Amino acid sequence: MRSMDFRPVFLVNGILLAILALVMCVPAFVDWYTGHKNWQVFAASAGLTLFVGVAMAFASNTGGARLNVRQAFLMTTLAWVLLAIFASIPLRFSDLGLSFTDAFFEAMSGLTTTGSTVITGLDHAPPGVLLWRALLQWVGGIGIIVMAIAILPLLRVGGMQLFRMESSEQGDKALPRAAQIAVVIGVIYLLLTVAWSAAYWFAGMSGFDSVAHAMTTIATGGFSTHDESLGYFDNATIDAIATFGMLMGALPFLLYLKTIQGDWRALSNDSQVQWFLIAVGAGVIVAAGWLWLDDGRSIFDSVRYSAFNVVSIITGTGYATEDYTLWGAFATPLFFFMMFIGGCAGSTTCGIKVFRFQVLYAAARTQMHHLMLPHGIFVPHYNRRPISDEVIVSVLSFFFVFGICYALLALGLGMLGLDFLSAISSAGTAISNVGPALGPIVGPAGNFQSIPDPAKWLLTGGMLLGRLELFTVLVLFTRSFWRG
Questions:
Q1: Distances from the Cα of 352 to the Cαs of 192, 196, 428, 452, in angstroms?
Q2: β-pairing verdict for 385-386 and 381-382
Q3: In terms of pTM, does the model score above 0.70?
């Protein structure tokens, strides 16, 4: 049995906590500037978080040692849990009067860019709290992109090794190169946020609303500064800007980098992007046709509302302009199935992700050919490259584990008293990191405040599982992991 060296794990987590403390200073300044006494809560929380983070980092001198695979698994899961704990402190002691359960739920929902909320009265909430929620999603969005580029391919999680960068087969080469790429992608992420903030402002939002919504749009998070979400503004231009922004956040950020480097067809030639846009287009056409024929709306309104809400659900953003569960009987199953799709790998979205459907389709098609021609040689392809058996097994395992975790989560919520629709849709929205579920209680017109505390903890675990691609968390509960 080999014992694990925890020092690199604590070092990385200490640095992340120190960064979180610095981010906390932003809402502290906003509350101070606007004369709201809540700035003291953020300042004290930032001081505590900084102290713990710096202490962890200084106490974990690694002597230049690199993270191995076991340490990377532990570091990744522990980072999301620790960040959520410390991010919940200012929410717990703010004027909102949240319990620790509600504060932790809100913080985990923010960092995982889920967008489910337990807070009502957002229109009158302190500006620092509203900004903090947006910042959590913005940080979580860039965090998952970096993870998808640097960590998950090395861990061979759920087929993510498809996206291992060239010349990075060995772990010691991957991380430095990934760090350089992550910095450039971080700049792209920031520039997109600034661009969408300006667009929202020109479309009629206040400066504060435009910044907060730009962060949660590009992060495909969905937290809003109003209880009615973007429906509060009732502005077709804002809806169009948000729809396009959610799509931008759902595309692979590595392809943005390639585009900047001169490969202008990087996005249009990528099969994952093509499949994703086809899925979105099909969803919009079906929903718009249903609204036009069944609800008697104009073609413009049908396209406007269907495009916004379909993109919001497929990308896992969770914005809403109206309660789409009232669009008729067909809308509920349509939106239920769409919430599992997700966007592209290497984006801010979660869900199953399009590339896994592509791998599954390629494997199934190959199997069909084998049935018809048993002695033929057929190789499944993804993006015009052959798919290894390792990737196929990894993707099939992901689908199986995803289904099991979803079923157990829904059963657990049912045992805790949630009705059938609330249980199955809440489980789906948590593990797919979508935000609103379905039905009058937890749907787009409601929130998660009224459900029991044990159900909130169960959903929080579902959010973490979904955000970290399931295996990253589940492997920590195996005996072989701790035996080394």
A1: 25, 27, 11, 27
A2: antiparallel
A3: yes
Backbone angles phi, psi at 446, to 5 degrees: -120, -160
d(CA 287, CA 28): 43
- 345, pLDDT greater than 60: yes
pLDDT band at 165 (very low <50, low <70, confident <90, very high): low
Collect all residues with Cβ–Cβ distance below 8 Å to 400 and sequence separation of at least 6. none
Q: 10 Å Cβ neighbour count for 416? A: 16
Tokens 């923010």 locate to 110
DSSP sequence for 458-471: HHHHHHHHHHTTTH
Radius of gyration of the CA atoms of the chain, in A: 22
Residue 222: strand, helix, or coil: coil
CB-count exposure of residue 287 (10 Å: 0-12, 13-18, 19+): buried
Q: How far is CA 392 from the centre of its chain?
A: 24
The rounded distance, in Å, linking the Cα atoms of 23 and 33 is 16
Residue 46: exposure state from Cβ atoms within 10 A (0-12, 13-18, ≥19): buried
Q: What's the CA gap between 225 and 27, in Å, rounded?
A: 14
- Answer for the pair 476, 360: CB distance below 8 angstroms, yes or no: no
Q: How far apart are CA 31 and CA 155, in angstroms?
A: 41
Percent of the chain with pLDDT strictly greater than 70:
95
User: Hey, is 386 helix, strand or coil?
Assistant: strand
The arithmetic mean of pLDDT across residues 299-323, rounded, is 94
